[in-house]
Design a protein that fits this description.
Elements lengths: L1 H15 L8 E9 L10 E7 L7 E8 L5 E6 L9 E7 L3 E2 L20 E3 L2 E5 L1 H7 L1
């Protein structure tokens, strides 16, 4: 009987000592024009916490400016991703807009960030039609 209790206690000890998974997440990428190959320098890039998938219920966790080459990087540890939502990046810049013709959002990649990993996500924005008509 003592051996059975000891064995049970040993199993509980090993199960409770399970290693906790890191939630340190790094995402980087480039902000580009979707209807061209132009890099968009100094675009405002946001780290968004999407509370519920496919809803407008979003919380801006952080924001930065992309550098002169359009590069941005976020490194964060806000714990596990909200379920069923997640974390994503979004961008905006003067003369560009983020709503595409179908009503979706071009300034936000459609896939959520993988929490606890290092990844690359480029963000694309549409050049404003008013600017296109003026420039071309």
């Amino acid at each position: 009987m003592k051996n059975l209790v000891f064995l049970f206690a040993l199993c509980v000890f090993f199960v409770s000592c399970e290693k906790e998974q890191s939630t340190l997440t790094t995402v980087s990428g480039v902000v580009k024009a979707r209807n061209g190959e132009a890099i968009i320098p100094n675009a405002r890039v946001y780290l968004i916490k999407q509370v519920i998938k496919r809803s407008r219920n979003q919380i801006v966790m952080d924001s930065i400016r992309a550098d002169e080459n359009g590069y941005y990087t976020f490194s964060f540890d806000y714990g596990p991703a909200p379920n069923p939502g997640g974390f994503r990046v979004k961008a905006e810049a003067p003369l560009y807009y983020s709503l595409d013709a179908k009503g979706g959002t071009a300034g936000e990649p459609q896939n959520y960030l993988q929490v606890g990993k290092t990844q690359t996500q480029n963000v694309e924005l549409w050049l404003s039609r008013l600017v296109k008509d003026t420039v071309y």
